[in-house]
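ARCHIVE CARD
SHELF: 3
SLOT: left
DATA:
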Amino acid sequence: MVRAQGQVEGIFIGAEAAAPLESMPEVRAEQGRGLAGDRYWSGQGTFWKPLTDREVTLIEMESLEALASDEGITLEPREARRNIATRGVRLNDLVNQQFRVGDATLLGIRLCEPCGHLERLTGKTLRPALGGRGGLRAAILASGVIRVGDSIQAGPEGESAAIPEPLGASHIAG
Protein backbone atom coordinates (compact mmCIF):
# COMPACT_ATOMS: atom_id res chain seq x y z
CA MET A 1 0.00 0.00 0.00
CA VAL A 2 1.32 3.47 -0.94
CA ARG A 3 1.43 6.02 1.89
CA ALA A 4 1.64 9.79 1.64
CA GLN A 5 4.82 11.16 3.15
CA GLY A 6 4.99 14.81 2.34
CA GLN A 7 4.31 17.54 -0.14
CA VAL A 8 5.92 19.88 -2.64
CA GLU A 9 6.54 23.31 -1.08
CA GLY A 10 8.32 24.91 -4.04
CA ILE A 11 9.52 24.26 -7.59
CA PHE A 12 12.60 26.02 -8.99
CA ILE A 13 14.28 25.95 -12.38
CA GLY A 14 17.08 27.92 -13.96
CA ALA A 15 17.47 28.28 -17.72
CA GLU A 16 21.28 28.63 -17.61
CA ALA A 17 24.19 27.46 -15.49
CA ALA A 18 24.77 29.66 -12.41
CA ALA A 19 21.67 31.79 -13.20
CA PRO A 20 19.28 32.47 -10.30
CA LEU A 21 16.52 29.88 -10.07
CA GLU A 22 12.95 30.97 -10.78
CA SER A 23 9.97 29.81 -8.74
CA MET A 24 7.33 27.97 -10.77
CA PRO A 25 3.79 26.91 -9.81
CA GLU A 26 4.20 23.71 -11.87
CA VAL A 27 6.65 21.97 -14.16
CA ARG A 28 6.66 18.98 -16.51
CA ALA A 29 9.04 16.22 -15.45
CA GLU A 30 10.28 14.35 -18.54
CA GLN A 31 11.68 10.86 -18.28
CA GLY A 32 15.32 10.70 -19.36
CA ARG A 33 15.62 14.47 -19.57
CA GLY A 34 14.64 16.41 -16.43
CA LEU A 35 12.34 19.32 -15.66
CA ALA A 36 11.19 21.24 -18.74
CA GLY A 37 12.98 24.56 -19.02
CA ASP A 38 15.67 23.76 -16.46
CA ARG A 39 19.37 24.06 -17.29
CA TYR A 40 19.95 20.32 -16.91
CA TRP A 41 16.94 19.54 -19.13
CA SER A 42 18.64 21.51 -21.92
CA GLY A 43 22.19 20.30 -21.14
CA GLN A 44 23.29 23.71 -19.80
CA GLY A 45 23.96 22.93 -16.11
CA THR A 46 27.38 23.48 -14.57
CA PHE A 47 27.71 19.77 -13.79
CA TRP A 48 25.60 18.49 -16.69
CA LYS A 49 26.40 14.98 -17.87
CA PRO A 50 24.04 12.51 -19.52
CA LEU A 51 23.35 10.79 -16.20
CA THR A 52 20.01 10.02 -14.58
CA ASP A 53 21.04 11.61 -11.28
CA ARG A 54 21.03 15.04 -12.97
CA GLU A 55 17.32 14.94 -13.88
CA VAL A 56 15.82 16.42 -10.69
CA THR A 57 17.06 17.43 -7.24
CA LEU A 58 15.07 17.84 -4.05
CA ILE A 59 15.71 19.41 -0.64
CA GLU A 60 13.76 19.35 2.62
CA MET A 61 12.41 22.65 3.92
CA GLU A 62 13.15 21.23 7.36
CA SER A 63 16.88 21.15 6.49
CA LEU A 64 16.83 24.80 5.47
CA GLU A 65 14.93 25.73 8.63
CA ALA A 66 17.43 23.79 10.78
CA LEU A 67 20.29 25.56 8.97
CA ALA A 68 18.78 28.89 10.02
CA SER A 69 18.00 27.90 13.62
CA ASP A 70 21.13 25.83 14.34
CA GLU A 71 23.74 27.78 12.38
CA GLY A 72 22.16 31.19 11.85
CA ILE A 73 22.49 30.77 8.06
CA THR A 74 19.44 31.75 6.04
CA LEU A 75 19.19 29.99 2.69
CA GLU A 76 16.05 30.52 0.64
CA PRO A 77 14.85 27.37 -1.19
CA ARG A 78 15.75 28.84 -4.61
CA GLU A 79 19.28 29.64 -3.31
CA ALA A 80 19.80 25.97 -2.44
CA ARG A 81 19.87 25.29 -6.22
CA ARG A 82 17.57 22.28 -5.87
CA ASN A 83 14.53 21.88 -8.11
CA ILE A 84 11.94 20.82 -5.57
CA ALA A 85 11.58 21.92 -1.95
CA THR A 86 9.67 19.36 0.13
CA ARG A 87 8.04 19.18 3.54
CA GLY A 88 7.19 16.15 5.64
CA VAL A 89 9.40 13.56 3.94
CA ARG A 90 12.90 12.34 4.82
CA LEU A 91 14.65 12.44 1.47
CA ASN A 92 17.63 10.42 2.70
CA ASP A 93 15.23 7.48 3.13
CA LEU A 94 14.33 7.63 -0.57
CA VAL A 95 17.75 6.63 -1.92
CA ASN A 96 17.14 3.59 -4.17
CA GLN A 97 13.38 3.98 -3.65
CA GLN A 98 10.62 4.74 -6.15
CA PHE A 99 8.27 7.54 -5.18
CA ARG A 100 5.59 9.69 -6.78
CA VAL A 101 5.67 13.46 -6.86
CA GLY A 102 2.45 14.75 -8.37
CA ASP A 103 1.89 12.88 -11.64
CA ALA A 104 5.56 11.84 -12.04
CA THR A 105 7.34 8.77 -10.72
CA LEU A 106 10.90 9.32 -9.49
CA LEU A 107 13.71 7.11 -8.25
CA GLY A 108 16.06 8.37 -5.55
CA ILE A 109 19.61 7.87 -6.86
CA ARG A 110 21.94 9.42 -4.26
CA LEU A 111 22.30 12.23 -1.78
CA CYS A 112 22.88 15.70 -3.19
CA GLU A 113 25.59 17.04 -0.91
CA PRO A 114 26.42 20.76 -0.91
CA CYS A 115 29.55 21.70 -2.86
CA GLY A 116 32.01 24.54 -3.37
CA HIS A 117 30.05 25.76 -6.40
CA LEU A 118 26.96 26.26 -4.23
CA GLU A 119 29.05 28.10 -1.65
CA ARG A 120 30.54 30.38 -4.32
CA LEU A 121 27.09 31.23 -5.74
CA THR A 122 25.55 31.93 -2.33
CA GLY A 123 28.60 33.41 -0.60
CA LYS A 124 27.78 31.17 2.39
CA THR A 125 29.72 28.32 4.03
CA LEU A 126 27.27 25.45 3.74
CA ARG A 127 29.16 22.16 3.47
CA PRO A 128 29.72 21.50 7.19
CA ALA A 129 26.19 22.52 8.20
CA LEU A 130 24.31 20.81 5.34
CA GLY A 131 26.40 17.63 5.16
CA GLY A 132 24.04 14.64 5.06
CA ARG A 133 20.99 16.89 4.63
CA GLY A 134 21.69 18.70 1.37
CA GLY A 135 19.00 16.91 -0.59
CA LEU A 136 18.45 14.07 -3.04
CA ARG A 137 19.30 13.47 -6.70
CA ALA A 138 16.60 11.57 -8.56
CA ALA A 139 15.80 10.07 -11.94
CA ILE A 140 12.42 10.44 -13.60
CA LEU A 141 10.97 6.99 -14.27
CA ALA A 142 7.60 8.18 -15.59
CA SER A 143 6.88 11.65 -16.96
CA GLY A 144 4.21 13.88 -15.48
CA VAL A 145 3.33 17.31 -14.16
CA ILE A 146 4.49 18.36 -10.69
CA ARG A 147 2.69 21.23 -8.94
CA VAL A 148 3.32 23.15 -5.73
CA GLY A 149 1.15 21.47 -3.09
CA ASP A 150 1.32 18.01 -4.72
CA SER A 151 1.82 15.04 -2.44
CA ILE A 152 4.96 12.95 -2.31
CA GLN A 153 4.19 9.27 -1.95
CA ALA A 154 6.58 6.37 -1.44
CA GLY A 155 5.95 2.67 -1.44
CA PRO A 156 6.18 0.44 1.62
CA GLU A 157 9.49 0.23 3.51
CA GLY A 158 12.05 -1.78 1.59
CA GLU A 159 10.41 -1.34 -1.82
CA SER A 160 13.32 -0.48 -4.05
CA ALA A 161 14.00 -0.24 -7.72
CA ALA A 162 16.88 -0.78 -10.07
CA ILE A 163 18.80 2.37 -10.88
CA PRO A 164 18.47 3.07 -14.61
CA GLU A 165 21.56 3.04 -16.78
CA PRO A 166 22.96 6.44 -17.75
CA LEU A 167 21.37 7.71 -20.92
CA GLY A 168 23.35 8.61 -23.99
CA ALA A 169 24.04 12.28 -24.76
CA SER A 170 22.10 12.08 -28.03
CA HIS A 171 18.99 11.02 -26.11
CA ILE A 172 19.32 13.85 -23.60
CA ALA A 173 19.91 16.54 -26.23
CA GLY A 174 17.10 15.29 -28.45
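SLOT: right
DATA:
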Amino acid sequence: MKILHVNNVANVAYDLSRAQREIGQQARVMAHRRYSMSRPDVPMYLDGFLGINFELLVHSRLFQESDIVHVHSGIRRTQTVFRRLKEASGAKWVLHYHGSETRMGYGMFHRDIGDTEIVSTPDLLRWHERAVWLPNPIPEAASTTTTPRKIHGGRIVVGHFPTSREMKGTASVIRALKPLVESGSIELIIMEGKPHQEIVDAIRRMDAVVDQLNALAIFSKVALEAMALGVPAISSYDPKLFPDDCPVLAANSETELLDTVMRMASEGVDDTLRCEGIEYVRRHHHPLVVARRLGEIYSSA
Protein backbone atom coordinates (compact mmCIF):
# COMPACT_ATOMS: atom_id res chain seq x y z
CA MET A 1 0.00 0.00 0.00
CA LYS A 2 1.38 3.39 -1.04
CA ILE A 3 0.35 6.20 1.30
CA LEU A 4 0.90 9.93 0.79
CA HIS A 5 0.47 12.15 3.86
CA VAL A 6 -0.09 15.81 3.04
CA ASN A 7 0.80 18.35 5.77
CA ASN A 8 2.40 17.50 9.09
CA VAL A 9 0.41 19.00 11.96
CA ALA A 10 2.05 18.45 15.38
CA ASN A 11 4.29 15.86 13.68
CA VAL A 12 1.39 13.39 13.54
CA ALA A 13 1.86 12.62 9.85
CA TYR A 14 5.58 11.99 10.35
CA ASP A 15 5.00 9.70 13.34
CA LEU A 16 2.26 7.81 11.51
CA SER A 17 4.36 7.35 8.39
CA ARG A 18 7.29 5.90 10.33
CA ALA A 19 5.04 3.43 12.12
CA GLN A 20 3.39 2.51 8.82
CA ARG A 21 6.79 1.78 7.32
CA GLU A 22 7.57 -0.43 10.29
CA ILE A 23 4.55 -2.61 9.56
CA GLY A 24 5.47 -2.90 5.88
CA GLN A 25 3.53 -0.09 4.19
CA GLN A 26 5.04 2.53 1.88
CA ALA A 27 4.37 5.90 3.46
CA ARG A 28 5.82 9.35 2.87
CA VAL A 29 5.05 12.88 4.04
CA MET A 30 4.68 15.91 1.80
CA ALA A 31 4.59 19.11 3.84
CA HIS A 32 5.82 22.68 3.96
CA ARG A 33 9.34 22.62 5.36
CA ARG A 34 8.80 25.74 7.44
CA TYR A 35 5.75 24.38 9.25
CA SER A 36 6.88 20.79 9.75
CA MET A 37 8.50 19.70 13.02
CA SER A 38 10.47 16.94 11.23
CA ARG A 39 11.89 17.15 7.75
CA PRO A 40 9.26 15.90 5.25
CA ASP A 41 10.11 13.24 2.69
CA VAL A 42 8.78 15.68 0.06
CA PRO A 43 9.37 19.24 1.30
CA MET A 44 7.31 22.16 0.00
CA TYR A 45 8.55 25.76 0.07
CA LEU A 46 5.99 28.10 -1.52
CA ASP A 47 3.36 30.07 0.42
CA GLY A 48 0.13 31.83 -0.43
CA PHE A 49 -2.83 30.85 -2.58
CA LEU A 50 -0.92 30.62 -5.86
CA GLY A 51 2.24 29.16 -4.35
CA ILE A 52 0.60 26.27 -2.51
CA ASN A 53 -1.73 25.34 -5.36
CA PHE A 54 1.14 25.47 -7.85
CA GLU A 55 3.43 23.33 -5.73
CA LEU A 56 0.72 20.74 -5.19
CA LEU A 57 0.26 20.52 -8.95
CA VAL A 58 4.01 20.09 -9.40
CA HIS A 59 3.76 16.96 -7.25
CA SER A 60 0.60 15.65 -8.94
CA ARG A 61 2.36 12.44 -9.95
CA LEU A 62 2.71 11.50 -6.27
CA PHE A 63 -1.06 11.71 -5.87
CA GLN A 64 -1.62 9.55 -8.96
CA GLU A 65 0.83 6.90 -7.73
CA SER A 66 -0.70 6.60 -4.26
CA ASP A 67 -3.32 4.16 -3.01
CA ILE A 68 -4.17 6.45 -0.08
CA VAL A 69 -3.99 10.25 0.04
CA HIS A 70 -4.13 11.28 3.69
CA VAL A 71 -4.69 15.05 4.04
CA HIS A 72 -4.07 16.52 7.48
CA SER A 73 -5.74 19.65 8.91
CA GLY A 74 -8.52 19.79 6.37
CA ILE A 75 -8.65 21.81 3.16
CA ARG A 76 -8.94 25.58 2.90
CA ARG A 77 -11.39 27.33 0.62
CA THR A 78 -8.61 28.53 -1.72
CA GLN A 79 -6.97 25.11 -2.07
CA THR A 80 -9.16 24.21 -5.04
CA VAL A 81 -6.36 22.24 -6.67
CA PHE A 82 -7.18 19.34 -4.34
CA ARG A 83 -10.38 18.76 -6.31
CA ARG A 84 -8.41 18.41 -9.54
CA LEU A 85 -5.90 16.08 -7.88
CA LYS A 86 -8.72 13.93 -6.53
CA GLU A 87 -10.31 13.62 -9.97
CA ALA A 88 -6.98 12.56 -11.51
CA SER A 89 -6.15 9.94 -8.89
CA GLY A 90 -7.59 6.53 -8.20
CA ALA A 91 -6.67 6.77 -4.53
CA LYS A 92 -8.90 6.73 -1.48
CA TRP A 93 -8.81 10.14 0.16
CA VAL A 94 -8.74 10.52 3.94
CA LEU A 95 -9.32 13.92 5.57
CA HIS A 96 -7.75 14.10 9.02
CA TYR A 97 -8.79 16.95 11.34
CA HIS A 98 -6.59 17.97 14.27
CA GLY A 99 -8.35 20.85 16.01
CA SER A 100 -7.92 24.50 15.08
CA GLU A 101 -8.88 24.03 11.42
CA THR A 102 -12.23 22.74 12.69
CA ARG A 103 -12.86 24.98 15.69
CA MET A 104 -11.87 28.11 13.73
CA GLY A 105 -13.38 26.85 10.47
CA TYR A 106 -10.54 27.62 8.06
CA GLY A 107 -10.03 23.97 7.05
CA MET A 108 -13.65 22.92 6.66
CA PHE A 109 -13.97 23.21 2.88
CA HIS A 110 -14.11 20.69 0.00
CA ARG A 111 -15.03 17.97 2.49
CA ASP A 112 -16.96 16.06 -0.16
CA ILE A 113 -13.74 14.82 -1.78
CA GLY A 114 -12.90 12.75 1.28
CA ASP A 115 -13.83 9.06 1.23
CA THR A 116 -13.60 9.04 5.01
CA GLU A 117 -12.75 11.41 7.85
CA ILE A 118 -10.59 11.08 10.95
CA VAL A 119 -10.33 13.30 14.03
CA SER A 120 -7.40 13.47 16.44
CA THR A 121 -9.46 14.31 19.53
CA PRO A 122 -12.97 13.10 20.40
CA ASP A 123 -14.45 16.58 20.88
CA LEU A 124 -14.14 17.14 17.11
CA LEU A 125 -16.76 14.47 16.43
CA ARG A 126 -19.45 17.08 17.04
CA TRP A 127 -18.37 18.77 13.78
CA HIS A 128 -17.52 15.56 11.90
CA GLU A 129 -20.34 13.11 12.48
CA ARG A 130 -19.08 10.54 9.97
CA ALA A 131 -15.53 10.65 11.29
CA VAL A 132 -13.57 8.09 13.31
CA TRP A 133 -11.48 9.11 16.30
CA LEU A 134 -7.88 7.96 15.84
CA PRO A 135 -5.69 8.62 18.91
CA ASN A 136 -2.48 10.46 18.12
CA PRO A 137 0.67 8.31 17.94
CA ILE A 138 3.13 9.04 20.74
CA PRO A 139 6.65 7.78 19.90
CA GLU A 140 7.67 8.02 23.55
CA ALA A 141 5.22 5.15 24.21
CA ALA A 142 7.79 2.84 22.64
CA SER A 143 10.44 3.98 25.13
CA THR A 144 11.60 1.53 27.77
CA THR A 145 13.08 4.36 29.85
CA THR A 146 10.73 5.94 32.35
CA THR A 147 11.23 8.70 34.87
CA PRO A 148 12.00 7.49 38.41
CA ARG A 149 10.44 9.15 41.42
CA LYS A 150 12.63 12.05 42.53
CA ILE A 151 12.99 14.33 45.51
CA HIS A 152 13.87 17.99 44.92
CA GLY A 153 14.77 19.34 48.33
CA GLY A 154 11.34 18.51 49.72
CA ARG A 155 9.36 20.10 46.90
CA ILE A 156 8.02 18.73 43.64
CA VAL A 157 8.82 20.19 40.26
CA VAL A 158 5.83 20.94 38.03
CA GLY A 159 6.22 21.68 34.33
CA HIS A 160 4.00 23.62 31.94
CA PHE A 161 4.82 23.71 28.22
CA PRO A 162 2.49 26.07 26.32
CA THR A 163 2.57 26.36 22.55
CA SER A 164 0.24 29.34 23.01
CA ARG A 165 -0.17 30.95 26.45
CA GLU A 166 -3.64 32.14 25.62
CA MET A 167 -4.82 28.79 24.29
CA LYS A 168 -3.26 26.77 27.11
CA GLY A 169 -4.55 29.06 29.87
CA THR A 170 -1.07 29.80 31.17
CA ALA A 171 -2.15 32.89 33.09
CA SER A 172 -4.72 30.80 34.97
CA VAL A 173 -2.14 28.09 35.68
CA ILE A 174 0.27 30.63 37.14
CA ARG A 175 -2.45 32.29 39.19
CA ALA A 176 -3.75 28.97 40.54
CA LEU A 177 -0.34 27.68 41.60
CA LYS A 178 1.03 30.98 42.94
CA PRO A 179 0.37 30.12 46.63
CA LEU A 180 2.33 26.87 46.31
CA VAL A 181 5.19 28.55 44.48
CA GLU A 182 5.41 31.35 47.05
CA SER A 183 5.35 28.88 49.97
CA GLY A 184 8.13 26.84 48.39
CA SER A 185 5.95 23.72 48.15
CA ILE A 186 6.54 23.41 44.41
CA GLU A 187 8.80 24.72 41.70
CA LEU A 188 6.90 25.73 38.58
CA ILE A 189 8.90 25.61 35.35
CA ILE A 190 7.37 27.10 32.20
CA MET A 191 9.12 26.33 28.93
CA GLU A 192 7.97 27.49 25.51
CA GLY A 193 9.35 28.05 22.04
CA LYS A 194 11.90 25.25 22.35
CA PRO A 195 12.58 22.30 20.00
CA HIS A 196 10.41 19.28 20.67
CA GLN A 197 13.27 17.07 21.86
CA GLU A 198 14.30 19.72 24.37
CA ILE A 199 10.75 19.77 25.71
CA VAL A 200 10.70 15.97 26.01
CA ASP A 201 14.03 16.00 27.84
CA ALA A 202 12.66 18.61 30.25
CA ILE A 203 9.51 16.56 30.90
CA ARG A 204 11.72 13.67 32.02
CA ARG A 205 12.97 15.86 34.87
CA MET A 206 9.49 16.77 36.13
CA ASP A 207 7.42 15.26 38.93
CA ALA A 208 4.18 16.33 37.22
CA VAL A 209 3.05 18.26 34.15
CA VAL A 210 0.15 20.71 33.94
CA ASP A 211 -1.01 20.48 30.35
CA GLN A 212 -3.65 23.22 30.08
CA LEU A 213 -6.49 25.00 31.82
CA ASN A 214 -9.19 26.01 29.35
CA ALA A 215 -12.66 25.11 28.10
CA LEU A 216 -11.70 22.78 25.24
CA ALA A 217 -12.72 19.57 27.12
CA ILE A 218 -9.60 17.71 25.94
CA PHE A 219 -5.95 17.35 26.85
CA SER A 220 -3.09 17.71 24.39
CA LYS A 221 -0.12 15.63 23.24
CA VAL A 222 1.96 17.10 26.06
CA ALA A 223 -0.12 15.17 28.60
CA LEU A 224 0.35 11.97 26.62
CA GLU A 225 4.09 12.49 26.20
CA ALA A 226 4.43 13.11 29.93
CA MET A 227 2.53 9.95 30.87
CA ALA A 228 4.54 7.89 28.38
CA LEU A 229 7.65 8.96 30.30
CA GLY A 230 6.16 8.10 33.69
CA VAL A 231 5.25 11.67 34.62
CA PRO A 232 1.66 12.24 35.87
CA ALA A 233 -0.36 14.72 33.80
CA ILE A 234 -2.92 17.25 35.03
CA SER A 235 -5.28 18.98 32.64
CA SER A 236 -8.71 20.46 32.17
CA TYR A 237 -10.82 18.03 30.16
CA ASP A 238 -14.07 16.07 30.08
CA PRO A 239 -13.33 12.50 31.23
CA LYS A 240 -16.56 11.25 29.61
CA LEU A 241 -15.01 11.80 26.17
CA PHE A 242 -12.12 9.42 26.83
CA PRO A 243 -11.65 5.73 27.69
CA ASP A 244 -12.51 4.77 31.27
CA ASP A 245 -8.88 3.89 32.00
CA CYS A 246 -7.60 7.41 31.24
CA PRO A 247 -5.42 8.45 34.23
CA VAL A 248 -5.02 12.16 33.39
CA LEU A 249 -5.90 14.08 36.57
CA ALA A 250 -8.82 16.37 35.74
CA ALA A 251 -8.62 19.98 36.97
CA ASN A 252 -11.26 22.15 35.31
CA SER A 253 -10.83 25.29 37.40
CA GLU A 254 -8.07 27.17 39.18
CA THR A 255 -9.36 25.84 42.51
CA GLU A 256 -9.30 22.24 41.28
CA LEU A 257 -5.80 22.68 39.90
CA LEU A 258 -4.54 24.15 43.18
CA ASP A 259 -6.13 21.33 45.18
CA THR A 260 -4.70 18.64 42.90
CA VAL A 261 -1.14 19.96 42.97
CA MET A 262 -1.34 20.74 46.71
CA ARG A 263 -2.33 17.14 47.41
CA MET A 264 0.51 15.89 45.22
CA ALA A 265 2.97 18.20 47.00
CA SER A 266 1.92 16.99 50.45
CA GLU A 267 1.46 13.28 49.72
CA GLY A 268 4.12 12.80 47.04
CA VAL A 269 3.79 11.42 43.54
CA ASP A 270 1.95 8.12 43.45
CA ASP A 271 3.99 5.45 41.67
CA THR A 272 0.75 3.67 40.77
CA LEU A 273 -0.32 6.77 38.84
CA ARG A 274 3.00 6.75 37.01
CA CYS A 275 2.48 3.15 35.93
CA GLU A 276 -1.14 3.76 34.92
CA GLY A 277 -0.04 6.62 32.67
CA ILE A 278 2.67 4.57 30.98
CA GLU A 279 0.31 1.67 30.33
CA TYR A 280 -2.51 3.90 29.09
CA VAL A 281 -0.33 5.53 26.44
CA ARG A 282 1.15 2.21 25.37
CA ARG A 283 -2.32 0.71 25.10
CA HIS A 284 -3.96 3.50 23.11
CA HIS A 285 -1.20 5.65 21.56
CA HIS A 286 1.72 3.37 20.73
CA PRO A 287 2.59 4.23 17.10
CA LEU A 288 2.25 0.62 15.94
CA VAL A 289 -1.15 0.26 17.61
CA VAL A 290 -2.33 3.46 15.93
CA ALA A 291 -0.85 2.49 12.54
CA ARG A 292 -2.67 -0.86 12.57
CA ARG A 293 -5.94 0.84 13.50
CA LEU A 294 -5.38 3.33 10.68
CA GLY A 295 -4.93 0.44 8.27
CA GLU A 296 -8.39 -0.81 9.23
CA ILE A 297 -9.83 2.67 8.59
CA TYR A 298 -8.18 2.76 5.15
CA SER A 299 -9.63 -0.66 4.30
CA SER A 300 -13.17 0.36 5.23
CA ALA A 301 -13.05 3.74 3.44
